[in-house]
Structures are given as structure tokens and as C-alpha cells.
Design goal:
globular, 264 residues, alpha/beta, seven-stranded mixed sheet, Rossmann fold
Length: 264
């Protein structure tokens, strides 16, 4: 035992000397053998938190998600899953993945405009487009054209329909966001599925909170339980609900956006 402790101490000293100390290796449980593992944090309310009793806004969110969760049982995404060229058929997995919940939210809310932040392979776009009303639109933002991804689920014919549009631009940049402020103000649903590097999400949300929405809008945030996203989610002071059990295993949050916003 003494030799083992000595080795650990020696390794820590070596890492400190080289500036490469990995605190998580010694302080966190070993999770290296679990695919797609992430560290998270659970803690109670502190004196700085301001828990509020349920009101009409939170009741609306609860009714919405309970109805959508019930609808999600009947959602069929086999056609979208068939577009995935390799790996698991994520849209078929529910609960655990958010695709059926997204589809159910769109089906229930019947939005005229859905704005997606983070196109990537296009799975979420296709899921939401499937259930949007005939005259509705899904506008998906990314900094990389969809054609650049070898495993994209999109086909060119998807964009022949005016119901799906990709816009290239970094919405963390004030000039880019300002160019699309009216679009954001008109959105019924905004799905934030960006890089989760904290800086992008924070910059985007700070600008979004200054938008004067024309009507109540739903913000869906992916991965709210990832380490980089924990404080960001907690700082949002608008009506919100953690719906991870019905969404993505790594966290799904709903926020009600209104014409007059609070800041984060």
C-alpha cells in the first residue's frame, strides 16, 4: 500500500512540475470504460438562488412537456433514422435521445418558424421539418455548410422545399446576430444545439435575451447537464424546466421566452 501511495504522489508531483496535472483523474470516479461518458455536478439551492413557486408560465411548460412526452410514444422517425449512414439510429432511441421529444413539441405547437442553432448532420432539422405545418419553416444555422459533412443526412432535394433553409454564420458575433434579430423575434421555437464550449452559448444567449419577441417562444437547449453548460443553465432567470428524462440523456432544458426578457 505504501508503494502505491508513493507512486501516486510521485506522479502528481511530476504532473505539477510539467503543468499537466489532471485533477479529475485523482478526484473523480473512473469512467474511462464508459462510452460517451461526461462528468456532471448535483448540488442544492444556495442563498444566491431564487426558487419561485409554480405560476402560469411554469404550468404552461409542464403541460406542454407532459403532452409532448405522451405524443412522443407514437412518433415514428424510422424514415429519418434510415438516412443515418453509420452508427446507432439515434432518432429511434427514446427516452435517452431528444429527437422524438423535438418532433412531438413541433407537432403539438404547430410553429410557423423553427430556428435551429447547429446544423451538423441534419438529423434534428429533418425531424422537426417532418412535423412542421405545410407553410412553416425550419431555418438552421451553422458555420459549416451541410455539404461539407461526409455523413450528412441531408439530400439536396430537402432544400428544394422552402420549408428548410440553412444559413451560414456565427451567431455569437454581434453583427451576425443583429442581421438575424428579426428572424429570432419571429421564431416560435429556437433549438440551441451549438458547440457547448460555454463561450458561444453565453454570447448567443446574452444577445437573445435582448430580443423583443413578437409572441411567446420556446427555447430548447441541448446538453444542459454537461459540465460546460451547468452554470449557464442555472443562471437563466426566465421560466424554465429541466426535461432530461423525456429528452437527451445529457440534458434537455425548456425556457419560455416572452416579449420582455430577463437577463442572464
Amino acid at each position: 500500500m505504501t508503494r502505491i501511495v508513493a507512486r501516486i504522489v510521485s506522479r502528481i508531483k511530476s504532473e505539477i512540475t510539467t503543468g499537466r496535472v489532471n485533477v479529475a483523474r485523482y478526484c473523480m470516479p473512473k469512467i474511462n470504460s464508459i462510452p460517451d461518458s461526461q462528468l456532471s455536478l448535483i448540488h442544492p439551492f444556495t442563498s444566491s438562488d431564487k426558487p419561485q413557486p409554480a405560476n402560469s408560465n411554469t404550468n404552461f411548460l409542464m403541460d406542454l412537456v407532459l403532452g409532448a412526452a405522451n405524443d412522443a410514444r407514437e412518433i415514428d422517425l424510422v424514415d429519418v433514422s434510415a438516412r443515418i449512414r453509420q452508427g446507432p439510429k439515434w432518432p429511434n432511441i427514446w427516452p435517452g435521445e431528444h429527437y422524438k421529444l423535438l418532433a412531438a413539441l413541433v407537432k403539438r405547437m404547430r410553429p410557423n418558424l423553427v430556428v435551429e442553432i447547429g446544423t451538423f448532420l441534419g438529423v434534428s432539422s429533418l425531424v422537426m421539418k417532418k412535423y412542421i405545418p405545410r407553410d412553416g419553416r425550419v431555418v438552421t444555422f451553422d458555420v459549416i455548410p451541410w455539404q461539407s459533412f461526409e455523413d450528412t443526412c441531408f439530400q439536396q432535394s430537402d432544400f428544394d422545399d422552402p420549408g428548410l433553409v440553412q444559413v451560414l454564420g456565427d451567431l455569437a458575433q454581434p453583427n451576425v446576430f443583429e442581421a438575424h434579430r428579426e428572424l429570432m423575434a419571429s421564431a416560435d421555437i429556437i433549438f440551441l444545439d451549438g458547440p457547448k464550449n460555454r463561450s458561444f452559448e453565453r454570447a448567443f444567449l446574452q444577445q437573445l435575451m435582448n430580443v423583443n419577441f413578437y409572441k411567446a417562444s420556446l427555447l430548447v437547449i441541448d446538453d444542459i447537464r454537461l459540465w460546460n453548460m451547468l452554470d449557464l443553465w442555472r443562471e437563466i432567470e426566465l421560466p424554465k424546466l429541466d426535461v432530461t428524462s423525456f429528452g437527451h440523456y445529457s440534458g434537455t432544458g425548456l425556457v419560455l421566452l416572452a416579449p420582455h426578457q430577463a437577463s442572464i
